[in-house]
């Protein structure tokens, strides 16, 4: 019976494809579920303001696509894969959600993408870092849009090694993301002739880093690499400056820093730190114009994740418009076939593994003298071309890539 | 260099010292909890939120009113303490005499509301607080670089802890307090205003948390959620020390700081769990805690 049903459904589906795509927007509604940490450690980098960015995209699109209205629902993922899984299950099973957007903690994204694959819906991940999301955890149902640990390591770690930071001591957040980042950093440091001489894995989250900073100091390494995020990173940097890490000749390398983190630290504490970012609000007229609109809505400058949420929602809606369908595979294929040229990326391209590859930027935090206002924080040192940034498909372990 | 279990002695001494500093924080926080539980039998789950309010008040008073660190050290605990008195007067008083679980749930709810509202205003990235100039820098002890501020934290915390212990255990005021909560009717018969005493005691316990918050402001990122993780650890410390034991809370606080510090050196992944492991062991062999009176 079920077999019969499946056959029938696919027959009907293919008939509809042939017959013309116009009829294929389910329920005459494109429904987008926004899932992100709305109240915890990762709130500020995406959170409620990410929802604003998504709503900006929908408003710019006119609130409807091909006559079908665009609806948004949102939920707090509480940084928990379990909570997120049950939310997304309800969304796709009972509420006809077509696209899940946002997604921050890597563990959440990995769990959610499995459910999306099971129900053949689409997810666009903007907040997560782990490069494994489009490597061993890739599915035909999600796209990883803004950045991942691979270019973070490529950008920052290789720059620091080339400046003479040969020996590294790693402070790593003890969960999937930290491990992924440490792995990517180790590869880059060793490839550039450097060496990891020690590491310590700290619990997530940790408030007091003095003990770990002391161990890092005692190691005598040139560089202390921070493979963590959010409050862990800002706390580690504050403690490092208190314990005189830089005065004693060691360099700090923060592998993942968001604009909101640097803003929290301030130019005084964070000056000179190098970081890799997928986007910065003050790069050109296009980014500034969009950021001004965002700031009017939210009162703050956007992070790369906020910009990515807006950009990816626009790409998605354009693909729905072009194909006249909200079917996950149809839309994903259309998105892969269309290069991305907007305020977020130039010539961005979504690969078969779901990775959106685009230029990344090596930035340095300005000194208080250089910084003209509280959000004027980065100097862009170098553009890292897309093909240099991300893991090449030839090294991919993704099941969708024929290696 | 001499080594102990593969760790150089210099590193170990540094870690011991760091452990004592963190222990001073634990002592201060668990002391407030112990005072509140010991005297009022209230399980104060809003303690972490009060610690956070102490830090946040310090930052906001500096940003908007230019209030400096030393004034904040006095003013923030006073303000937060007054807020605590209000909570006791308007909320906790209504459930006095009920099972402990009621005060636990009530204070937990208050804590969630406070941090939830503040997250909406201030976000979670952390507010900046600049270290007072006189504490900038530090001294090289040979085995480690000791920031001046951390030294100050030990001194300030220990002085306040000792003073509190002394007042409660050794003075007449302390005797009133202990008697008033033991048999309030009798004490009222002696002309002591027991309800006021209870309000003030809760306010004082909360002010201790706020004091720890002020000490934390220059060294940790100040966010509306900073109290929640600390709270659980500090509760474990109180349980290990013996619920309600004032001296026990202080000694256990410092001890646990040291044990946690050593774990961070020898096996870091266990450092967030070690205190709870100790708690389990203590509860198995000495259910009333290391310094608690046998029930």
UniProtKB/TrEMBL annotation, chain A:
CDD domains: PBP1_SBP-like. Pfam families: Peripla_BP_6. Residues 1-23 form the signal peptide. Residues 29-366 form the Leucine-binding protein domain. SUPFAM superfamilies: Periplasmic binding protein-like I. InterPro entries: BCAA_transport, Leu-bd, Peripla_BP_I. The keyword Signal applies. The keyword Membrane does not apply. Keywords: Signal. Belongs to the leucine-binding protein family. This is ABC transporter substrate-binding protein.
UniProtKB/TrEMBL annotation, chain B:
One of its GO terms (cellular component) is plasma membrane. InterPro entries: ABC_transp_permease, BCAA_transport_permease. PANTHER family: ABC TRANSPORTER ATP-BINDING PROTEIN, BRANCHED-CHAIN AMINO ACID TRANSPORT SYSTEM PERMEASE PROTEIN LIVH. This is Branched-chain amino acid ABC transporter permease. It is a multi-pass membrane protein. The chain crosses the membrane at residues 12-37, 73-92, 104-129, 149-168, 196-220, 232-259, 266-285. Its main location: membrane. GO terms for molecular function: transmembrane transporter activity. It is found in: Cell inner membrane. Keywords: Amino-acid transport, Cell membrane, Membrane, Transmembrane, Transmembrane helix, Transport. GO terms for biological process: amino acid transport. It comes from Marinobacter flavimaris. Belongs to the binding-protein-dependent transport system permease family. LivHM subfamily. The lineage of its organism: Bacteria, Pseudomonadati, Pseudomonadota, Gammaproteobacteria, Pseudomonadales.
């Amino acid at each position: 019976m079920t077999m019969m049903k499946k056959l029938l459904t696919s027959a009907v589906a293919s008939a509809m494809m042939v017959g013309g795509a116009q009829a294929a927007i389910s329920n005459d509604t494109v429904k987008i579920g926004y899932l992100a940490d709305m109240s915890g450690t990762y709130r500020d980098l995406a959170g409620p303001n990410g929802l604003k960015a998504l709503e900006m995209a929908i408003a710019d699109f006119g609130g409807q696509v091909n006559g079908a209205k665009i609806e948004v629902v949102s939920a707090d993922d509480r940084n928990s894969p379990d909570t997120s899984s049950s939310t997304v299950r309800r969304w796709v099973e009972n509420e006809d959600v077509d696209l899940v957007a946002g997604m921050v903690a890597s563990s959440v994204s990995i769990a959610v993408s499995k459910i999306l694959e099971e129900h053949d819906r689409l997810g666009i991940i903007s907040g997560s870092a782990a490069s494994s999301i489009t490597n061993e955890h890739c599915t035909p149902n999600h796209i990883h849009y803004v950045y991942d640990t691979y270019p973070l390591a490529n950008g920052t770690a290789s720059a620091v090694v080339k400046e003479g930071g040969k020996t590294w001591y790693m402070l790593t957040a003890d969960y999937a993301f930290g491990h992924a980042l440490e792995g990517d950093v180790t590869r880059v440091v060793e490839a550039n002739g450097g060496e990891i001489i020690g590491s310590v894995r700290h619990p997530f989250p940790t408030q007091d880093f003095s003990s770990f900073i002391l161990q890092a100091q005692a190691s005598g390494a040139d560089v202390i690499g921070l493979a963590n995020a959010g409050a862990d990173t800002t706390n580690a940097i504050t403690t490092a400056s208190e314990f005189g890490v830089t005065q004693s000749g060691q360099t700090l390398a923060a592998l993942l820093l968001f604009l909101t983190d640097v803003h929290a630290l301030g130019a005084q504490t964070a000056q000179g730190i190098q970081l890799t970012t997928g986007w910065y609000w003050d790069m050109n007229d296009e980014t500034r114009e969009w950021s001004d609109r965002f700031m009017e809505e939210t009162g703050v400058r956007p992070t790369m994740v906020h910009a990515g949420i807006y950009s990816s929602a626009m790409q998605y809606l354009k693909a729905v418009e072009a194909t006249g369908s909200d079917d996950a595979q149809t839309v994903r294929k259309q998105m892969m076939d269309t290069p991305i040229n907007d305020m977020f990326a130039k010539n961005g391209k979504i690969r078969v593994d779901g990775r959106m590859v685009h230029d990344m930027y090596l930035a340095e935090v300005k000194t208080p003298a250089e910084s003209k206002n509280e959000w004027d924080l980065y100097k862009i040192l170098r553009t890292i071309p897309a093909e240099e940034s991300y893991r090449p498909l030839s090294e991919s372990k993704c099941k969708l890539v024929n290696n | 260099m001499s080594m102990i279990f593969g760790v150089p002695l210099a590193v170990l001494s540094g870690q011991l010292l760091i452990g004592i500093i963190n222990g001073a924080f634990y002592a201060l926080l668990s002391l407030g909890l112990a005072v509140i539980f010991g005297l009022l039998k209230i399980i104060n789950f809003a303690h972490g939120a009060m610690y956070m309010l102490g830090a946040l008040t310090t930052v906001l008073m500096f940003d908007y009113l230019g209030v400096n660190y030393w004034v904040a050290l006095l003013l923030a605990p006073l303000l937060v303490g007054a807020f605590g008195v209000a909570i006791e007067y308007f909320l906790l008083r209504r459930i006095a005499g009920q099972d402990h679980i009621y005060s636990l749930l009530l204070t937990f709810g208050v804590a969630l509301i406070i941090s939830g509202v503040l997250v909406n205003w201030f976000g979670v990235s952390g507010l900046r607080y600049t270290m007072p100039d006189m504490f900038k820098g530090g001294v090289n002890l040979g085995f480690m670089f000791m920031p001046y501020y951390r030294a100050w934290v030990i001194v300030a915390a220990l002085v306040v802890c000792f003073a509190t212990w002394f007042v409660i255990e050794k003075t007449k005021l302390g005797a009133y307090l202990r008697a008033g909560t033991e048999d309030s009717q009798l004490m009222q018969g002696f002309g002591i205003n027991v309800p006021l005493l209870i309000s003030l005691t809760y306010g004082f316990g909360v002010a201790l948390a706020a004091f720890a918050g002020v000490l934390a402001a220059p060294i940790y990122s100040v966010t509306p959620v900073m109290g929640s993780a600390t709270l659980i650890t500090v509760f474990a410390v109180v349980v290990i020390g013996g619920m309600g034991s004032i001296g026990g809370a202080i000694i256990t606080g410092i001890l646990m700081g040291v044990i946690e510090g050593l774990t961070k050196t020898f096996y870091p992944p266990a450092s967030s769990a070690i205190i709870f492991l100790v708690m389990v062991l203590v509860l198995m062999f000495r259910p009333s805690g290391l310094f608690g009176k046998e029930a």
